[in-house]
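Request: When convenient, would you put together a sequence paired with its structure tokens?
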Amino acid sequence: MPEDTPATLRHATSPSPESLDAAAALIRGRTLAVLTGAGLSTDSGIPDYRGEGAPARSPMTFSQFLESEQYRKRYWAGSHLGWRAFSRAQPNAGHLALAALETGGVANGVVTQNVDGLHVEAGSAKVVDLHGSMARVKCLDCGQFFARSAVAETIVAANPWLEEPGAVELGPDGDVAPGRLGDFTIPSCTVCGGMLKPDVVFFGEFVPTERFAEARALVHSADVFLVAGSSLVVNSGIRLLEVALRRRAPVIIVNRGMTKGDGRAALKIDAGASPTLEGLVERLLP
């Protein structure tokens, strides 16, 4: 780590002027790469299932999805209801701040662990959806992609009862209780009749090699690495942190609560991502 790197600031309840000044000093005159996580989208009403106080969770694995029709019914019913909430969400001040940093020539783009598409809606031009996008659906047999909105229409047409209030109980990660799911009709590929899956990375799946290479290139070409709203629990985030550290690039972490990268960061700001990013825009852009 460079000798001129400020000491780590920890446990502030909100972004203090001093911590924002320290972060701006690290970034000013350098190229910034950004990794975002669920903590950035909470201000848009999308829950963070890993943050402090989050409910206990047992996320469905890729192997469960592949091997069991019952699991696929549970996933598609819950995912459909969850996607409707996602589709109503709007970019928040943090998304807009990152788009402004890119437009202003400070950031070279955004790598996001989120699947909500809000960075693109906010105006970010270079976005790597590390874990995919809820807006797309892929056939696992023929590789055809479909718009999520089209698949949603198919689900509603085949399962009109799913729209009834209280028809299913939605839990963490969009999982649902079995209930009436025996009646649920799973969508299938209209090209080959194959198995459909939202274009997101499940637990037990690997980030596609080309997509991770694109993310790594963004981090490798930057002088500073900023993590916003991620606890860095998922391996892909830690791997990108390692890329930055190998380049001796200062790492700034903005997150409420601890992360797996705190001890290796040049600066840790324990605060909300949106107000912190807004504060950086005020300091870095004319």
User: Anything to note?
Assistant: The radius of gyration is 20 Å.
